[in-house]
Design a protein that fits this description.
By secondary structure, the chain is of the alpha/beta class. Helix 1 crosses helix 8 and helix 6 crosses helix 7. Helices cover 55% and strands 11% of the residues. The N and C termini lie close together (11 Å). Strands 2-3-1-4-5 form a five-stranded parallel β-sheet, sandwiched between helices. It has one domain: P-loop containing nucleotide triphosphate hydrolases (Rossmann fold). It contains eight helices and five strands, in the order E-H-E-H-H-H-E-H-E-H-H-E-H.
Protein backbone atom coordinates (compact mmCIF):
# COMPACT_ATOMS: atom_id res chain seq x y z
CA UNK A 1 0.00 0.00 0.00
CA UNK A 2 1.37 3.42 -0.97
CA UNK A 3 1.46 6.06 1.74
CA UNK A 4 0.63 9.71 1.19
CA UNK A 5 3.50 12.03 0.44
CA UNK A 6 4.57 14.11 3.42
CA UNK A 7 5.07 17.87 3.29
CA UNK A 8 6.27 19.56 6.46
CA UNK A 9 6.50 23.34 6.56
CA UNK A 10 8.88 24.30 9.34
CA UNK A 11 9.12 28.07 9.59
CA UNK A 12 10.50 29.71 12.67
CA UNK A 13 12.55 32.43 14.18
CA UNK A 14 16.25 32.80 13.42
CA UNK A 15 18.10 30.79 16.05
CA UNK A 16 15.09 28.72 17.11
CA UNK A 17 16.52 25.51 15.65
CA UNK A 18 14.66 25.06 12.34
CA UNK A 19 17.67 23.55 10.59
CA UNK A 20 18.47 21.19 13.48
CA UNK A 21 14.86 20.06 13.82
CA UNK A 22 14.57 19.62 10.05
CA UNK A 23 17.70 17.45 9.93
CA UNK A 24 16.49 15.18 12.73
CA UNK A 25 12.99 14.90 11.24
CA UNK A 26 14.41 14.20 7.79
CA UNK A 27 16.60 11.42 9.19
CA UNK A 28 13.71 9.86 11.09
CA UNK A 29 11.15 10.15 8.30
CA UNK A 30 13.36 9.78 5.23
CA UNK A 31 12.51 13.20 3.82
CA UNK A 32 14.43 15.78 1.78
CA UNK A 33 15.13 19.21 3.30
CA UNK A 34 14.98 22.43 1.36
CA UNK A 35 15.52 25.99 2.47
CA UNK A 36 16.55 29.28 0.90
CA UNK A 37 20.24 28.39 0.99
CA UNK A 38 19.81 25.02 -0.74
CA UNK A 39 17.58 26.56 -3.41
CA UNK A 40 19.99 29.43 -4.02
CA UNK A 41 22.83 26.91 -4.36
CA UNK A 42 20.69 25.01 -6.90
CA UNK A 43 19.99 28.22 -8.85
CA UNK A 44 23.65 29.26 -8.84
CA UNK A 45 24.70 25.78 -9.97
CA UNK A 46 22.16 25.69 -12.80
CA UNK A 47 22.95 29.21 -14.01
CA UNK A 48 26.69 28.76 -13.64
CA UNK A 49 26.82 32.10 -11.83
CA UNK A 50 28.66 32.89 -8.62
CA UNK A 51 26.83 34.06 -5.50
CA UNK A 52 28.21 37.56 -6.12
CA UNK A 53 26.93 37.56 -9.71
CA UNK A 54 23.55 36.33 -8.52
CA UNK A 55 23.41 39.04 -5.83
CA UNK A 56 24.18 41.67 -8.48
CA UNK A 57 21.37 40.33 -10.71
CA UNK A 58 18.94 40.50 -7.79
CA UNK A 59 20.04 44.05 -6.91
CA UNK A 60 19.68 45.16 -10.54
CA UNK A 61 16.19 43.66 -10.75
CA UNK A 62 17.21 41.11 -13.37
CA UNK A 63 16.17 38.26 -11.10
CA UNK A 64 13.16 37.94 -8.78
CA UNK A 65 14.95 35.72 -6.30
CA UNK A 66 12.01 35.41 -3.91
CA UNK A 67 9.72 34.38 -6.78
CA UNK A 68 12.23 31.84 -8.05
CA UNK A 69 12.75 30.38 -4.57
CA UNK A 70 8.99 30.06 -4.06
CA UNK A 71 8.54 28.47 -7.50
CA UNK A 72 11.27 25.88 -6.89
CA UNK A 73 9.93 25.20 -3.38
CA UNK A 74 6.47 24.62 -4.87
CA UNK A 75 7.96 22.04 -7.23
CA UNK A 76 9.44 20.24 -4.24
CA UNK A 77 6.21 20.25 -2.24
CA UNK A 78 4.30 19.00 -5.28
CA UNK A 79 6.72 16.04 -5.37
CA UNK A 80 6.21 15.52 -1.62
CA UNK A 81 8.33 13.82 1.00
CA UNK A 82 9.99 17.10 1.87
CA UNK A 83 10.60 19.44 4.75
CA UNK A 84 10.66 23.11 3.80
CA UNK A 85 12.36 24.98 6.59
CA UNK A 86 13.06 28.52 7.66
CA UNK A 87 12.12 31.62 5.71
CA UNK A 88 11.20 29.61 2.59
CA UNK A 89 8.46 27.83 4.55
CA UNK A 90 6.90 31.22 5.32
CA UNK A 91 6.43 31.81 1.59
CA UNK A 92 4.30 28.65 1.36
CA UNK A 93 1.86 29.14 4.24
CA UNK A 94 -0.98 29.41 1.73
CA UNK A 95 -0.28 25.90 0.41
CA UNK A 96 -1.56 22.62 1.83
CA UNK A 97 0.91 20.68 3.96
CA UNK A 98 0.87 17.63 6.14
CA UNK A 99 1.88 19.86 9.03
CA UNK A 100 2.87 23.48 9.54
CA UNK A 101 5.02 23.63 12.66
CA UNK A 102 6.38 26.99 13.83
CA UNK A 103 9.50 27.11 15.99
CA UNK A 104 9.62 29.91 18.54
CA UNK A 105 12.31 30.79 21.08
CA UNK A 106 13.05 33.65 23.42
CA UNK A 107 15.14 36.43 21.89
CA UNK A 108 18.04 36.01 24.34
CA UNK A 109 18.18 32.25 23.67
CA UNK A 110 18.17 32.85 19.91
CA UNK A 111 20.86 35.53 20.06
CA UNK A 112 23.12 33.27 22.10
CA UNK A 113 22.58 30.39 19.68
CA UNK A 114 23.23 32.59 16.62
CA UNK A 115 26.37 34.05 18.22
CA UNK A 116 27.75 30.57 18.90
CA UNK A 117 26.88 29.13 15.47
CA UNK A 118 28.13 32.11 13.47
CA UNK A 119 31.03 32.87 15.81
CA UNK A 120 30.00 36.50 16.22
CA UNK A 121 29.52 38.75 19.24
CA UNK A 122 26.30 38.55 21.22
CA UNK A 123 25.52 42.16 20.28
CA UNK A 124 25.93 41.39 16.58
CA UNK A 125 23.77 38.28 16.98
CA UNK A 126 21.06 40.34 18.67
CA UNK A 127 21.04 42.70 15.68
CA UNK A 128 20.85 39.72 13.29
CA UNK A 129 17.90 38.28 15.23
CA UNK A 130 16.09 41.63 15.19
CA UNK A 131 16.78 42.12 11.48
CA UNK A 132 15.55 38.61 10.69
CA UNK A 133 12.40 39.02 12.79
CA UNK A 134 11.58 42.26 10.97
CA UNK A 135 12.27 40.69 7.56
CA UNK A 136 10.02 37.72 8.31
CA UNK A 137 7.32 39.95 9.79
CA UNK A 138 7.29 42.09 6.63
CA UNK A 139 7.32 39.01 4.36
CA UNK A 140 4.23 37.42 5.94
CA UNK A 141 2.47 40.79 6.16
CA UNK A 142 3.12 41.41 2.45
CA UNK A 143 2.19 37.92 1.26
CA UNK A 144 -0.77 37.14 3.52
CA UNK A 145 -1.68 40.35 5.39
CA UNK A 146 -1.09 38.43 8.63
CA UNK A 147 1.13 38.65 11.67
CA UNK A 148 3.80 35.98 11.25
CA UNK A 149 3.51 35.14 14.96
CA UNK A 150 -0.23 34.42 14.70
CA UNK A 151 -0.58 30.82 15.93
CA UNK A 152 -3.64 30.27 13.71
CA UNK A 153 -1.25 30.08 10.73
CA UNK A 154 0.30 26.90 12.12
CA UNK A 155 -0.80 23.47 13.31
CA UNK A 156 1.81 23.37 16.07
CA UNK A 157 3.96 26.01 17.76
CA UNK A 158 7.03 24.69 19.61
CA UNK A 159 9.01 26.85 22.05
CA UNK A 160 12.54 25.54 21.60
CA UNK A 161 13.92 27.74 24.37
CA UNK A 162 11.94 25.59 26.82
CA UNK A 163 12.68 22.12 25.45
CA UNK A 164 15.67 20.55 23.67
CA UNK A 165 15.60 20.31 19.88
CA UNK A 166 15.12 16.53 20.08
CA UNK A 167 11.93 17.06 22.08
CA UNK A 168 10.69 19.52 19.46
CA UNK A 169 11.13 16.78 16.87
CA UNK A 170 9.14 14.41 19.08
CA UNK A 171 6.32 16.96 19.41
CA UNK A 172 6.08 17.32 15.63
CA UNK A 173 6.22 13.54 15.11
CA UNK A 174 3.54 13.04 17.76
CA UNK A 175 1.30 15.55 16.03
CA UNK A 176 1.73 13.66 12.77
CA UNK A 177 0.77 10.41 14.52
CA UNK A 178 -2.30 12.02 16.09
CA UNK A 179 -3.44 13.11 12.66
CA UNK A 180 -2.67 9.67 11.23
CA UNK A 181 -0.19 11.28 8.90
CA UNK A 182 2.87 9.28 9.84
CA UNK A 183 4.34 7.18 7.02
Amino acid sequence: MRRNKIVILLPGMLGSGCTSVARLLADRLGLKIINSESIIREIVSERGASFLEMAAMVRDGEVDLEGIIRSIALDYINEGDVIVEGRTALTLLDKPATIKAFLYADKSYRAKRVAERREISLEEAEREVERSDEDRRRLVERLYNHDWLDPSLYDVVVNTSRIPVERGVEVIEAYCKLCSLEP
